[in-house]
Amino acid sequence: MIDVLAFLPGKRKQSSSGWISFNAPCCVHNGNTQDRRSRGGIKLSDQGWSYHCFNCGYTTSFILGRNISFKARRLLEWLGVPDNDINQLNLESMRHRSVEGIIEDRQRVWNNLAPIEFKEAELPAFVDFVSPDTPVYWDYLKGRRIPEDYPIMVSGSTRPGVIVPFTYNNQVVGSTIRFLDDRNPRYLNDMPKGYVFGMDLQQTGWQHAIVTEGIFDALCISGLAVMHNEISDEQVRLIRSLGREITVVPDQDASGIGLIDRAVELGWAVSIPDWPSDVKDINDAVKRWGKLPTLLTIMQSRETSRIKIELRKKQLVKRLQK
Predict the structure, then answer these.
(1) Residue 102 — pLDDT band, cuts 50, 70, 90?
(2) Are residues 312 and 271 in contact, defined by beta-carbon separation less than 8 angstroms?
């Protein structure tokens, strides 16, 4: 989107309500004397801007997803915005409308589908619940800042590991074993198609839900985990059934780029906090700073603007290439 502020006259001021006032460029084009009393005002949002002149009464606005109106185009021209930039903004706005229309159509289809259900599943063989009486496993979970109240078991496998149950509506529908040795695979998943971990961690009254890749990322902040770097249509439907503002927090590595692109496609917010290079994901951040400071950095870095998300993605890619 065009940075309108870059084209405003140098002398301007901003009110507490967000309006930015400056000498209006429209007056001389509408039969009035040139404005010298900062009677023009513009207010920006993530999706566009509104303009009003208190001298000649000229008003117009722009919202991403709509054609640039004749009056909005004239204002941009009077501000000195090049024609190529205005035309590019119009194309970008039309692409946004196309994507939004696809999302709305999908939502209508999903709303008419049958209720989401998963079959009950049995857990793998386990020895005991993780507790201070099983110090190796207890220390591992404590080191990852996993809440003590989530039921995690010591695996009965020949390899040392912990079993994390997958639940939906408080019923076990699958599980994962996280092995603690250095051999691959590190995880052994038994997950039904379309499942999203952490649905039962969400509480009534919450307005936001945070979607991440890893199960321990979700556990340490009461978030949701898709458990790979893609989000299937079935998972999208399950997440949207919460009726909340969705924020996707990708792992800060090459695999996280795909999650960013999928979030943009879905119209969801994305958060890429400016963490140090050795902090790759939410669990790393919680281990270093704790749950509340990590959540604060996530929400402070939350972006809904496609342009700003693409900028942050490019910055992440550039950092990964160093």
Answers:
(1) low
(2) no
